[in-house]
UniProtKB/TrEMBL annotation:
One of its GO terms (molecular function) is triacylglycerol lipase activity. PANTHER family: AB HYDROLASE-1 DOMAIN-CONTAINING PROTEIN, HYDROLASE, ALPHA/BETA FOLD FAMILY PROTEIN. The keyword Zinc does not apply. GO terms for biological process: glycerolipid catabolic process. It comes from Streptomyces chrestomyceticus JCM 4735. It holds the Pfam family Abhydrolase_1. This is Alpha/beta hydrolase. SUPFAM superfamilies: alpha/beta-Hydrolases. The keyword Hydrolase applies. Residues 25-270 form the AB hydrolase-1 domain. It comes from the Bacteria.
Amino acid sequence: MTEHFATGNGISLCYETIGSPGNRPLLLIFGMYGQLIWWDDVLCRQLASEGFFVIRFDNRDSGRSQHLTTPPHLLRTALRLTRPAYTLTDMAEDALGLLDHLHIPAAHIVGASMGGMIAQELALRHPHRVLSLTSMMSTPHALTIGRRTDLTLLPYLLRRHPTDLDGYIRTSMAMLRKLSSPHLPFDENGTRTLLRRSHARGIDPDGTHRQMAAVLTAADRTKALKKLRLPATVLHGTHDPLVPVACARATARAIPGARLRVIPGMGHHFPPEAWPHLLDGLHTAAQGAL
């Protein structure tokens, strides 16, 4: 897989494509802290073999995409004492700019966690560019998360993670174990390899906090989502400690006709055991988009 760069919405984005450009376009948007490689290579190849032209990219402030320099001031931003460096709407426009760069008039959109919020924003602002929406491990409003979130996660989310390789792997492994579910296997070796690759591509603790500020200051999308008229699937795990499954139910209730798939045992991660749910949902959505 070869990395490419595109300038969309004034931001340089690093992206990769997998599969034939003649297939159904599928844009994957990952969440906070992650990079394009966090969409598993095997999953992407499987999606391509199922007839999709897969596009995965680094959000701004992630991996090899453009990083901003504005100090994050996370607490002041959360208290509305200062504005965030950018918004989820800006990040949705980044994704749209990538589709423009690739001359794709409309695509199936899949977003995970913060990526699900960005995908929702994209569908709301540009519904004619979205063939279907898949919102994974996400919510229509960040403030609905905290009501049932495992509070022991907060130190992992709010701290400024080390930038040296050993420190990054140590703290990230601890966080990802906490986010995953004890009911499904945790791939220790695979996760460690992923983190090494991520560190080599570039990590940015301030960038993560800028993304978090965008999440925390985003408006509630619940009422707006009720206006959507497109195929939508909501995927969520029963044991998500960060974004409670109630958030998925709220998303599915808000989007007319949305299909809710609650995956037994899954936490705030997307293990191979859950991939069939995504594939099945995408095929159903693709049929609905015809």
